[in-house]
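Hi,

I'm pasting everything inline rather than attaching a file, because the server keeps stripping attachments. The sequence lines come first, and each chain or strand is labelled.
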Amino acid sequence: MPYLKWFIATLIVAQLMACTTVKPWERDVLARRSMSLEKNPMFLSMDDHVYFSKEAAAGGRTFDGGGCGCN
Amino acid sequence: MLLRTFFLTFVLIMTHTAVADPSAELASYKGRVVYLDFWASWCGPCKLSFPFMQSLVDEYPASEFAVVTVNLDRRKALADKFLKDIGGRSLPVIMDPQGEWAEKFAVQDMPYSVLIDKRGNVRFEHAGFHESETSKYRAHIEQLLAEKE
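And the predicted assembly:
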């Protein structure tokens, strides 16, 4: 019955996980500079140029509206 | 230990600051078109919306039109700093740190504005603020102003 203990423990751990939706007015933390994906905009634009040249792909790495997803 | 936890929880619940009931607060504006705007200090486009809202107040008569803003910052000091930075607080501000007004009006973006007609019904909703769409916002306001109560 050692598997039973592991099974119960897994069930308990699974109950500890939770998902939630961030409401639009709760996105203030995302707007903080420390939360930005790229600290240096110049490096970001240089990377975008490289990706576009090599893969014809661009964007997808920043949030619209300054990090908070506004507008 | 358990008793202390219950006591602290009880104290936290009882000290929760009640926010003015939206229906009661807006009842005083019945008979006027209300531009209800939800904003926060961390919202970049909100900085652009304030001069626009001030221009609306200057343009339309106070007996028929009102702008009411709802702040959603967790701390009042952040809202006060924002208002000081943009130059004054001539627009009424309702503090809603718990988001109760935002829940009631189903705010879907930041900033978010709702146009309420003279009878108190929500007629138009604007998600975000776009300077290129201010003529549309004015058209909605004028449509509601033209309606009889």
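The helical segments of chain A are 2-16, 41-55, 65-69.

If the labels don't parse on your end, tell me and I'll reformat.
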